[in-house]
Amino acid sequence: MNEQKDYIVVPFPEIEGRFGLNIQDYSSGLFLSNNPADPAVYEDPGANTFAVYEGDTRMDILDLSVLGQGLAQAQNRAILVVGNLHVNQHINMYGTDVGYPICLYVTGNLTVNNVVMSSLSDLVVLGNIEVKNALYAVNTECGYIACGGNFSAANVYLESFGLTVKGNLNVPDFHYYVNLSRTDIDTPLEDLDINIGQLAGAAPIACGESGIKYFDLMEDIENGDLDFDDLDENEMSKVDALYKEHFVFKAQYYSKHNEFDVSNKVYQEILKGEDIFG
Q: For labelling, which of 95, 123, 165, 238 has a CA lying 20 to 30 Å from the CA of 107?
């Protein structure tokens, strides 16, 4: 069993020849949305390196938002595990401010307590993904989660984040975001870049605002048909109650009925091991 220190550094162009692995296998649907060989993204794609773990690997915490695992350049936050990966606590791929794509590619199964992801983050697992507590992925710009087997978790929150699961999705609390200004609430998951082989023990719940499960009045608010300034105190109290009734997360993570602090609070609490879901 490998530990966190047991890696080798391999240039991306050498990976297929050394390990027989086509990371950018577009026909399978299991690939990195941020192509490591893309000159539009990287100044010198040929110099991109991966920290490679050959064989099953166990870590306590995996934080891809900071430099580590022998990767000397900011653009090289990339890990390949040729085998299974077990992470005792969490995987942090919340890379909004990193400046370069970050990725984790696992050829076997992945087991972890919590995962947080944001812009420019790719997670590809050819086998099964088991997230014991929460997966939280928001605000993507070219980010993607791909699972070649079954995906299970206690809680999932996706906001504008692509997900492909080839096998069964088993998530009792699966929430996803719909931008009501652009998309109808009944839009099929596939049109939101969420592709699931089979819903098994999962009933996806749409959110019409960040962290707020959809309710009928939402579209009137979004379309401007309902103006808060036109409501008296009693009517406003009823609207407040509706929002609170449809919170995805615990009440302390909301500053007002329609203001949800996505970037500065929730993911940090998940990394602390807190149960944020209501």
A: 95
For residue 96, the model assigns a pLDDT of: 60
pLDDT score at 143 = 83
Q: Which of residues 212, 227, 242 is at a domain's end?
A: 212
Q: Is 267 helix (H, G, I), strand (E, B) or coil?
A: helix
Q: Which residues of 180-198 are buried (b: 16+ CB within 10 A; e: fewer)?
A: beeeeeeeebeebebebbe
What would the DSSP string read from start to end of 225-255?
A: SS-GGG--HHHHHHHHHHHHHTBSB-GGGEE
Total-model pTM: 0.90
Cα separation, 16 vs 171, in Å, equals 33
Whether 122 and 115 have beta carbons less than 8 Å apart is answered as no
Task: Provide φ and ψ at 230, rounded to 5°.
Answer: -90, -5
Q: What percent of the chain has pLDDT over 70?
A: 88
pLDDT band at 256 (very low <50, low <70, confident <90, very high): low
- List C-alpha distances in Å: 213 to 109, 247, 249: 31, 6, 10
